[in-house]
C-alpha cells in the first residue's frame, strides 16, 4: 500500500512539474514572440516591452535550467558529485535566476515611476529619468551577479576533497545547501526593492483615491486602474517569489533531499510555479498580450472546428 501511495504521489508530482514547465515555456515564448513581432512591424519598441521581452527570455532559460538540473538529479545523482558538472548546473541556474528576478524588479520599478503620484522633487527627477534609473539598476544588478558568481566559484572549488574532480555525497549536499543560502541572500536585494515599490504604489493609490473623493469625482478612473494593474503584477511576483524562496530554504533544512525523489519533485515543482505563474499574470495584465492571446485562442478554436468538419 505504501509503495502504491508513493507511486501515485510521484506520478502526480511529475505531471504537475510537466504542466508547469509547458505553461511557463509557452507563456514566456508567447510574450517574447508578440513583442519581437511588434518591434519588427513598428521598427521601435517601448522600454516596458523591452523589459517584458528580456524577462520572458530569462524566464525561459531559467525554466530549462531548473528542469535540466532536476532530470540530472533524478536520473543520475552521481553526476551531481562531479565538480565541473555541479559548477555548470549551479552557475547556469544562478545566472538565469538572477536575470529572471531582476527584470521583474525592473518592471515593477518602471511601473512605479510611471504611475505613482508624489510631489517629492527627488521622485519627480527619477520619474523624468525613468529609463536611466532602470539602466543604472541593471548595471548594479550585473555587479551583484559578478560578485555572486565569484562566491559560488570559491565555494565549489574551496572544499578539500580526496580528488579535484569529484565530491563525496556529503560534500555535494553541503556545497549545494551553502550555495542555496548564498543565492537566497543575494536575491533579497531585488526582493526588498520590489517590496518597497509595492508599498509605495499602495500608498500612492490610497492618496489618489482620497483626492478623488474630496473632489467628488468618479471612484474609478484611468490612473486608479493603472495603479491596480501594476499592484496586481508586483504583488503576484512577490507572492510567487516568496513561495519560491521558501522552497529553497526548505531544501537547506532537509539535507538528505537529494536521495529522495519525491522531495526533489516537490521542491522543484514549487520552484517552477514561480516563473510559470507570474508570466501568465503578465499576459492577462497587459492589454496587447491579452488581445494577442485571445486572437491565438480564437484561431485555434476555428482551426479545430475546421479540422473536425473536414474529418466528418
Would you mind describing this structure in some detail?
There is one protein chain. With 312 residues, the protein is mostly helical. Helices cover 86% and strands 0% of the residues. The chain contains nine helices and no strands. It has helices at 2-42, 47-75, 83-115, 121-128, 130-157, 169-214, 222-253, 261-285, 287-311. Helix 2 packs antiparallel against helix 3 and helix 5 (130-157) runs antiparallel to helix 6 (169-214). The radius of gyration is 22 Å and the shape is globular.
Distance between the termini: 46 Å
Strand content: under 5%
SSE pattern, N- to C-terminal = HHHHHHHHH
Count of individual helical segments: 9
What does the oligomeric state look like here?
A: single chain
How many individual β-strands?
0
Structural class: mainly alpha
Short summary:
The chain has helices at 2-42, 47-75, 83-115, 121-128, 130-157, 169-214, 222-253, 261-285, 287-311. It has 312 residues and is mainly alpha-helical.
List descriptors.
9 helices, 312 residues, globular, mainly alpha
Q: Any chance you could write out the topology, listing elements then pairs?
A:
Blueprint: H1 2-42, H2 47-75, H3 83-115, H4 121-128, H5 130-157, H6 169-214, H7 222-253, H8 261-285, H9 287-311
